[in-house]
Amino acid sequence: MATVTTNKTMTMLTNITEADRDVIAILVLKGRLGIAIRMGRTDGAALASARRLAEKYNWPGGMKTMKQAERFVLACHEAWKTED
Description:
By secondary structure, the chain is mostly helical. The protein has helices at 18-39, 44-56, 66-83; strands at residues 3-6, 11-14. The chain contains three helices and two strands.
């Protein structure tokens, strides 16, 4: 589990596992993809990151569009919410 360290000016996570990094990445992607889709824009960096995570977790099918990436991110988020 990640350890939270704080001082007067910042909060820092330490001892982060790979699973913790993936959860944080999914949450960030959820926001970035959602905003980009609603604004009618393409966020190439977020799309590339979603593709890497989809490959890592063996997501079936391809991922070419922002909507497909958003579906993947939302499915991951729902899966993690039900695990808790």
